[in-house]
Amino acid sequence: MAGRIETAIRKAVTPAIVALAALNRKRLPKPATIPFLRGVHTPMAEEFTLTDLSVVGTIPPQLDGRYIRIGPNPHGPANKGHHWFIGDGMVHGVRLKDGRAEWYRNRYIKSRDLEAKGGPPAAPGPRRGFGDTVNTNVLNIGGKTMALVEASSYPAELDENLETVGYSDFGGGLAGSFTAHPHQCPTTGEHYAITYDGPVQDTIHHVALDRNGKVLREMPIPVRHGPSIHDSALTAKYVVILDLPVTFSMPTLVAGYQFPYRWNAKHQPRIGLLPRAGQATDIIWCDIDPCYAFHIGNAFDNDDGSVTLDACAYNTMFDGEMSGPYGQSLGLERWSIDPIAKKVTRETLDAQPQEFPRPDERFFTQPYRYLWSIGLPEDGNLEFFESLPLLRHDLLSHEKTVHHFGGGRIPGEFVFVPRSDDAPEGDGWIMGFVIDPDAGTSALEILDAGSLEVTASITIPHVVPPGFHGNWLPS
Predict the structure, then answer these.
(1) For 254, phi and psi rounded to 5 degrees?
(2) What total of structural domains would you count in the chain?
(3) Taking a C-beta distance cutoff of 8 angstroms, is the pair 430, 452 a contact?
(4) pLDDT for 235-280, tens place per residue?
(5) Which of 3, 179, 201, 374 could form a disulfide with 226 if both were Cys (CB 3.0 to 4.6 A apart)?
(6) 3-class secondary-structure state, position 103
(7) Which of 385, 381, 266, 372 lies closest to 324, judged by CA?
(8) What single-letter DSSP state applies at residue 117?
(9) What is the bridge-based pairing of β-strands 390-394 and 399-403?
């Protein structure tokens, strides 16, 4: 009965909130003042297929597949209250085979939201009744290329040429929202995720898929305040939940802002250890000092029963009115999670501000040695308008290798690609997009993962706007 009453109240109140938010949005600054809509962030207006790509260096012949990155690319004029995280999704990809760059393509994710703005017709498939913008990550799940977003829409399936095939609830198995960061266990092939849903403030879910993309479980977990959980972690024993103090903010929503999450100093930050096959009552909650983390590098179990987790941490995030992820980076941290004392001890591995930590993912859930990340500005400005370095961490020797792209060039996230399935950890390449704002071009750069020397640079004759996540999807 309580659930029905709550649902009825939400249905009655929601239209009034939406109307009030729309009224207050008119009082906000014009979108032209938002940095994530200009300069290198200027949205692309066309979809291209380019087959004559200039290459400097040698593309490793072992690379047979596609590098695909996704990000926000608002179609048409943006509304007031715009936030970088909510723009229409666009994928950019480069196909590599036999030492050649066969093509570059960029394609919108064909959502109903996009069609309503005058964009191309929407792709078929199930929707959840909320907005269906998908703009955050692209992964291979069950042999399919899936574009992902958190807190709202179902994923969208893409074909080999990056066209949107349709929206997917994984064959009818997924009832609620999904995540941008499911993690695949290298031993079982199963995918594990922690999901949240914007309008629901008292519940998150643990979702598990088998290696073929079939939903195995969608288990509710009670929480408070509606935490924004961008990433989770996985060990051999646990799914690790980050319940940190960025939470849903009704005043922000009512004020007209389209991304209604803010720093919440009243929210107790904690890390949850959920046994992989456990129930919500089995979660071991461990308190942590106030901080936030978007992304996890890796996590693993220790012989003494504790869990080690490496993350790029911030002292706060979204602490005020802002159009992007502003917050002071604390660098790369190692968190030791003690399930007996129910506490988390934090250690700084590298104080240099950084983001997008990526390991050799064959070593997910295991003790590991190498991690790559992108340096950030010291002032906490995360607008990606300036040249930033690529970092390689040797966590065993504590050595850091730094690669500067030079000439004011701006990198995005870089992903590790192993030389072969059985290559030693860290033996392979690291690749990602780099913008040259002066030349008005971009490049897919492939570097030796150990030395960080450039192996090949594939020029794209326009700026690929800074996006979110990219991955190598082998054929």
Answers:
(1) -65, -35
(2) 1
(3) yes
(4) 999 999 999 999 999 988 888 888 899 999 999 999 999 999 999 9
(5) 201
(6) strand
(7) 381
(8) T
(9) antiparallel
Please write down the HEC assignment for all residues of 183-220.
EECCCCCCEEEEEEECCEEEEEEEEEECCCCCEEEEEE
Cα separation, 107 vs 95, whole angstroms: 14
Global pTM reads 0.94
Compute the distance between CA of residue 230 and CA of residue 53 in angstroms, rounded to an integer: 35
Return phi, psi of residue 250, to 5°.
-65, -40
Q: What is the pLDDT of residues 120-135, one digit of tens each?
A: 999 999 999 779 999 9
For the CA atoms of the chain, what is the radius of gyration?
21
Mean of pLDDT over the chain: 93
Which amino acid appears at position 123 of this protein?
A: A
Q: Which two tokens stand for residue 448?
A: 């030796």
At residue 14 the predicted structure's pLDDT band, cuts being 50, 70 and 90, is: low
Classify strands 89-97 and 65-72 as parallel, antiparallel or unpaired.
antiparallel
- CATH (domain of 136): 2.130.10.10
Please provide residue 37's backbone torsions phi and psi, each rounded to the nearest 5 degrees: -125, 5
Q: Rounded to an integer, what distance in angstroms lies between the CA atom of residue 295 and that of residue 376? A: 14
- In tens, the pLDDT along 329-375 reads 999 999 999 999 999 999 999 999 999 999 999 999 999 999 999 99
Do 418 and 362 meet the contact criterion of CB atoms below 8 Å apart? Answer: yes
Task: Map residue 16 onto helix, strand or coil.
Answer: helix
Give me the half-sphere count of Cα atoms (radius 13 Å) on the Cβ side of residue 211: 5
DSSP for 324-365 reads: S----EEEEEEEEEETTTTEEEEEEEE-S-EEEEEE-GGGTB
Tell me if residue 34 falls in helix, strand or coil.
Answer: coil
Taking the chain, what is the end-to-end CA distance rounded to the nearest angstrom? 51
Q: Residue 350: phi, psi to the nearest 5?
A: -155, 120
Boundaries of domain holding 152 = 2-474
Evaluated on CA atoms 108, 151, 357, 212, the torsion sign reads negative
- Alpha-carbon span 394 to 372, nearest angstrom: 9
